[in-house]
Each structure stands twice: as C-alpha cells, then as structure tokens.
Amino acid sequence: MRDRKFVLWVMLATFFLVLLNLPPSVSSALRGFFRGSMATYQGGVTRVLSRVHKTSAAVGNMGDVIKERDQLDKDVTALRARLRNLDVMTRENKELRELLGFKDRLGLRTVACEVIARDDGYGWWQTIRLDKGSDEGIGVSMPVITPDGVVGRVTEVGAQTCDVLLISDRSFKASVRFEQDGTFGILQGGGISLSGIHSLGVLCTPTPFRVDYVRKDTEIKVGELVMTSGFGGVFPAGLVVGRVVRMSLDETGLYQVADVAPAADMARLQQVLVITGR
Amino acid sequence: MTAAIMIFLLLAGGLLQSLIPAASSLGLSKPPFLMAVALYYALVHSRGTAVIAAILAGIIQDSMSLLPVGYSSLCFVIFGAILVETRETLFRDSLFTVAILGAGLGALTTLGLYLMLTFNSLADFIPFWWVALKMGGTALLGLGAAPVVWWSASTLERHVGLTYADER
What we know:
Chain A is α+β, with helices and mostly antiparallel strands. Chain A has 2 domains: 61-102, no CATH class; 108-278, Beta Barrel (Thrombin, subunit H). Chain A is 36% helix and 28% strand. Chain A has helices at residues 2-20, 24-60, 62-100, 102-106, and strands at residues 109-118, 127-130, 143-145, 150-157, 162-166, 173-178, 184-188, 209-215, 225-228, 240-249, 255-262, 271-277. Chain B is mostly helical. Chain B has one domain (2-15, 29-167). Chain B is built from 7 helices and no strands. Chain B has helices at 2-19, 33-44, 47-63, 71-86, 95-119, 128-159, 164-167. The longest helix of chain B has 32 residues, at 128-159. Chain B starts with a helix and ends with a helix. The mean pLDDT of chain B is 86. The chains are: A alpha+beta, B mainly alpha. The interface between A and B is large, with 50 and 45 residues.
C-alpha cells in the first residue's frame, strides 16, 4: 500500500515537472483549448448581462418614461428637419475625408473586436479578452486602440479569442513622446491605487500612468498630449496615449516624471480595434 | 456521472470567475470559484478524483490568465493533498468549516502563486503590499465563494443520486 502511494506521488511529481516545463507551443495550444472552450459562453453571458442591465435600467426609470415620450415626440419632429440637413452635411464630410486621404494617411489595417471578459482569471494582471483571434489575423504584440487612444497590446492569441494587456497594468511599458517638442520618455502603467474610485464597475482605477526618464531641461506643460513614439516595434508612432496631469522630478533629480491620464476610457471598454498591419 | 458534474462545475466556476469583475480595493481579487471546486473535491471525494479536479481547475485558471500553465494546478494539488490527508479530523460537512478553509486556501493560493512568480522573476513589478492586499481580498471572497460552491455541488450530486459514501 505504501509502495503504491509512493509510486503515485512520483507520477504526480513527474506530471508537474512536465506540465511546468511544457514547450511554449504545447503550452499555448493547451491554454488555447481551454480558453476557446470558455469563449463561447463568456461572449454569450456578457451579451445577456448587457441586455439585462439595459432592461433593468429601463424598468427602473419607468416613471420618467411617459414624460420623456411626450418630449421625444416634439424632438423627433425637430430632428427630422435637422436630419435632412445632416444628410447633406454627412455626404460633404465623407467627400472631404476621402479628399484628404485620411484613411491612407492613417495607413493602418484594423480588426474591430468586442470585449467579452475583463481581468485575467485570478486578477494578477489587468487584461481584457476580445472575441477575435488568429482566425482574423490577430497576432501576439499587436497594438489595441480605441478612437480615443491606446488601450494595450495583445499578449495571448487563440483561434477565436485573444487577451490584451492594458496600458494601465503595472507591467506595461512603452516608448512615448510629448506632443509639443517631441521629448521622449518611457510610459509605465499605474497599476492600482488604494485611493480613487472603487466599485465593481470600475475595473481599472484612474491612476495616472507614469512617464519616466523625461529630460530635465525640457518644459512639459500640463494638458500636453502624450503619444507613442514608434520605437520598440509594437506601437506605430503618433497614437494618443493620454494627457499630462502633473510634472515632477524623479527620486534621483536627474529626470522629470510625468503623471499621465489615459485618453481611452479604460473602465468602460466595449469595442476596440486591433492594429493588424500598416 | 462524477466526471460530468466535475466538468460542469469547473466550466461554471471558470465562467463566473472570469465574468465577475475584480475589485481594485481588494487588490484586483476575484472570487476563487475554481479553487472552491478543487476544495469541494478534496473534502468530499476520493484522492484520485480530488487530484484530477485540482489539476483541471488549475489549468483552467491559468488558461484564463497570463500565469504560466501549471502554477495554479500545483498550488491546488498541494493544498488539496494536505486536505485529503487531514479531512477526517475536520467538521467537513459544516458550511462554516468550508468557509474558513475557502478563506485560508484563497490567501495561501495567492501567496503560493506570488512565490512561484517571484521565483521565476515574473513578479518583479508587483509590490508586496499589493500581494498582501490581494491575499486579504481573496480570503474575503473565498469566505463567500467556497460555501456557495460546496452547497451547489453537494446539492447537484445529491439530485443525480451521488452520495459521499460512493466516493469516501
């Protein structure tokens, strides 16, 4: 009996030795299998919860709905008239955009994705899971953005899902520059703080990011835009990261440090773009 | 039937754990439903079933995060094995015991994962105060999650005709 138990422990130890030292390709496949199995349910439940939330919000406000309806009837009439004008303006806008070659100037191929889960499974890293993966051309280290600004970069990819490390995570680093004079710095996620807004709805605290190693002899103004520098090979240059909220000297006194507020609303990410090519 | 229920519990636990948002005031802790499933099997089922549940729960947890595959499994198996060996000395049918074990194992699992991450230089960016906060947060959430999982799992098994005697 004791021998049998010993053999079982040895087998278990061997199993863990193998499991903890799996080659990256096997480990990734294993991870992808389990993640893929969960993705369908995650997406479904997220959508159902979103509808339930909207419905409950609507029911909760039933008292105001009747008043709003009367007001809306009036508004609809006025808006119809304005819509006719807007149609004309939209056409003009589209033509002007095409004229300016906006899309060509951006020069980025993107894939639109929906956020189906937030935070990693045990809360060590600040991540989100998207509903598209390698089947749509998404690969590791691809930048993730919203129209407002940079969100993060892809860290894990399955066939139909991918995980994104948010720029607010403490382990996230990227090379950035300041808008006015192009001074460079290293952006680091702020992680979490013990102060600020804490609720189940707020997943990423609004702790500013930190830009380290900013030259001491440059004058950076509060409110200045911080953009990706294009160095490092992950983010193309010129993507907005945030705005400076405070400048100070670092502990050594040799460099300036900038506290930066994120441009993208990290707490309410629903739709994002993955940059798949340039 | 035991396997089907285990798979259902693991999937449901994984789904809940991934969907419930982390609370930043608790060190971004998540309710440890998968750990609670492993705890249930360690308290109630045979040694072999408990080990399989712990390994699968760990792999699912690691797959849903950036943790290297196997870290959580190792923690769950170690704590599960200790529980299997000592469970006869515990009032394991009491929800209070399960809640206390859920809290304790939640904190210990967090510490275990941190030590493994540190050992492999993967946690250099994590300050210890944050880990302490996370341990407290996971303990608090484990206090609630473990009895819920224990009650759900035992009720489910009772309804399909499985009794503890089959496994013990």
